[in-house]
Amino acid sequence: MSGEERWRILRLHVEDQIPLTALARETGIGLRTLQRWKQLYRDHGITALNPHPRADAGTRRTAGELVAFIERLALTRPRPALTTLHRLVSTEAERRGLAVPSYATVRDIVQSLDPALVTLALDGPAAYRDRHELVYRRRADRPNEIWQADHTELDILITSAAGGKPDRPWLTIVIDDHSRAICGYTVFTSAPSAMNTALALRQAIWRKTDPAWAMCGIPDVLHVD
């Protein structure tokens, strides 16, 4: 991961005050790693986040076939516990006559996997979109410059009016990119559509009856999923 990519994640904590524990949960990056990035940034600035080559760079310490084996297991759903994964790798290394990697080595290989790839492999496309929109979002300089509309299927069940069968509703929200405030939303049980997006957008544009919900206006740009 480049220094720019690390800063793109860390700035959510530095500028937007998102807790490191929340970032660790959303990105899959270890909390200690994020804390180390934060300390580097505090001591030496953004440039300190650039990765520095190791003295033994280019020297393969773990056999490539074992690295591939570890990565394949780590991207298998459901992912084995790290202790189980290390045991499986040890058995595979002995079968192939290779040096058995340490627990720490296996852990480091697993933690070095791209968080977006891990989310996509283990949780599917919907989770990938929901989690990594936070990290790779656009940046607006003022309110109502950029709005974003997105859909997500809620993790609840409701009783459908037609037939009384359980159903999972969908939520469409319109967010102001600058403030990250919700300008409008709609909840529905049918599949996401342009009509549902339009209903959320209509609410986002008009003034709200609740004086505490002050977000309204017309965006310069609207991004939709």
Detailed description of the structure:
The chain is α+β, with helices and mostly antiparallel strands. It has helices at about 5-15, 20-25, 30-45, 65-75, 80-95, 105-110, 115-125, 125-135, 195-205; strands at about 145-155, 160, 165, 170-175, 180-190, 220-225. It has a 4-stranded mixed sheet with strand order 5-4-1-6. Strands 2-3 form a two-stranded antiparallel ribbon. A hairpin with a 5-residue loop joins strand 4 (about 170-175) and strand 5 (about 180-190). Helix 4 runs antiparallel to helix 5 and helix 7 (about 115-125) runs antiparallel to helix 8 (about 125-135). It is flat and about 70 Å long. The model has no long low-confidence stretch (mean pLDDT about 85).
> What is the SS-derived class?
alpha+beta
Which architecture name of the domain at 140-224 does CATH use?
Answer: 2-Layer Sandwich
Give the SSE order as H and E letters: HHHHHHHHEEEEEHE
* Annotation field: number of helices: 9
- Which CATH C-level class of the domain at 140-224 is it? Alpha Beta
What is the mean pLDDT?
85
Q: What's the total count of β strands?
A: 6
Estimated radius of gyration = 22 Å
Strand order of the largest sheet: 5-4-1-6
The span between the termini is 26 Å
Task: Categorize the overall geometry.
Answer: flat
The name CATH uses for the topology of the domain at 140-224 is Nucleotidyltransferase, domain 5
Question: Low-confidence runs (pLDDT<50, min 5 residues)?
Answer: none
Query: How would you characterize the largest beta sheet?
Result: 4 strands, mixed
CATH superfamily of the domain at 140-224: Ribonuclease H-like superfamily/Ribonuclease H
> What share of the residues does DSSP label as strand, in percent?
5-15%
The percent of residues in helical segments reads 40-55%
